[in-house]
Specification:
Layout: H1 2-12, H2 14-60, E1 67-78, E2 81-90, E3 98-99, H3 100-103, H4 106-120, E4 128-132, H5 140-153, E5 158-162, H6 166-169
Parallel strand pairs: 4-5
Antiparallel strand pairs: 1-2, 2-3
Helix pairs in contact: 2-4, 4-5
Length: about 180
């Protein structure tokens, strides 16, 4: 009888409980939106600092006309906030910024990645970076700058680079010759 009375009381009180839960939900949702707004503001500030730092690195790597832009896309509120950041790039003057994968050549991608890794080198803990054919489409002064930048990045981690240019290889601590051969 006592158990049934308790169940009856709960069922009679369900409308009050529903209202209470709705109120708690709305309160929690408001707190989440407030925190998401603060997170979004921090992201915008960090994105601006990050883009400026990467642009400086790219200028050093002989890509002075690169324009970087952070596009903030609204997403449903979740554990990571209510926006998503997408970095866009324009490698040539007059070109509108687009996704890196849509506009960058192999050599540009390598330099962009090197610039990003240079900026993030004091913030991540990736022990080894591998750059394959980072010298694609570059020569002379640009290759030398790439070598200088890779030497800088290698102070905090191991860097492995596949290159055909002496200007890049000259900055390495050690060299390995890798040859490919076919038989039969």
């Amino acid at each position: 009888l006592e158990q049934l009375k308790a169940e009856y009381d709960v069922l009679n009180d369900s409308e009050y409980q529903t209202q209470k839960l709705k109120s708690e939900f709305e309160s929690a949702k408001q707190i989440a939106f407030t925190k998401a707004k603060a997170l979004s503001e921090h992201r915008r500030i960090a994105a601006e600092r990050f883009m400026n730092a990467v642009a400086q690195e790219l200028a050093f790597l002989q890509m002075p006309n690169v324009k970087l832009e952070a596009a903030f896309e609204k997403i449903p509120l979740g554990s990571t906030g209510y926006d998503n950041v997408v970095f866009l790039i324009s490698a040539n003057v007059g070109e509108p910024p687009k996704s890196i994968s849509k506009i960058a050549s192999g050599g540009e991608l390598s330099r962009i990645m090197l610039a990003i890794k240079s900026v993030l080198s004091s913030h991540d803990d990736i022990p080894t970076l591998i750059f394959d054919e980072i010298d694609a489409g570059v020569s002379g002064k640009t290759a030398s700058k790439i070598g200088i930048k890779m030497k800088h990045v290698s102070k905090n981690r191991q860097v492995i680079c596949v290159t055909h240019l002496a200007q890049i290889g000259a900055y390495a601590d050690s060299h390995l010759l890798i040859e490919k051969a076919e038989s039969e």
